[in-house]
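lol ok so funny story. i was supposed to be doing the assay writeup but got distracted and ended up predicting the structure for this chain instead. priorities right. anyway since i did it might as well share w the group, maybe its usefull for someone
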Amino acid sequence: MHVQSSQPLGVPPLELTGERTLPDVPAENYWFRRHLVVYEWIGARVAGLRVIDLACGEGYGSEVLSRSAASVVGVDANPEAYEHARRRYVRQNLSFERALVETYGEQSCCDAVVFLQTIEHLADPAAVLAHLRAILAPGGVAYVTTPNVLTLAPPGAPKSDNPWHLREYRAAEFEQLCRAAFPHVELLGVFHARKLRAHELALRLGWDRVHQRLGLTAPFYDRFTPALASSDFALRPARLDEALDFLAVCRP
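and the output, tada:
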């Protein structure tokens, strides 16, 4: 069991369950940074806007968005995550609400809606995407991410073994789903960069066999994983079948 460490006084730590990623858990740092890079990319594009971060989880992404946005509301249905987020992330333009993503918000209530790594959890993703469009103000934009089944699941498998995921998508499937609600969709991919790109190349040259033979597996990854940064990932529009995750930038 992994639990967050070094939380501020009065902030209840969250347990890593696999349903969401967390900061302050060294063993989880790869997934945290993989998600964080997308929040940072979006944060650079929502300056001065009213933003809703649906299924915000622990709240770290809402805080990133609030550094540039006019206002951010982080929304999550989980009571522990909500209580943690509202106590840990305190800014004048940032608030948190406990609610269901399927029903939160009123028509034209925000300029941007952020919905990351959650659509794969939903039984009716099309209805939720239609709801995202409904709560956007004219000229608004929705940012939606999901993992790439081709790189997350074993070869040929319909999905990974993540019990929280109901469906995982290929690029064309995800784009088609988004286009049913939004006529204008730009699709980007999240890829390894810098240290992680070097690690990929090392694996192709046989690094797995070397560290296992020398007994270095645990010592190496105990150092390597916590040292990763969001800059070890990059967003690009090409070769999407090889992407780790997809980011759909959706406009009505």
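The chain has one domain: 26-192+237-251. The first strand starts at residue 50 and ends at 54.
back to the writeup now i swear
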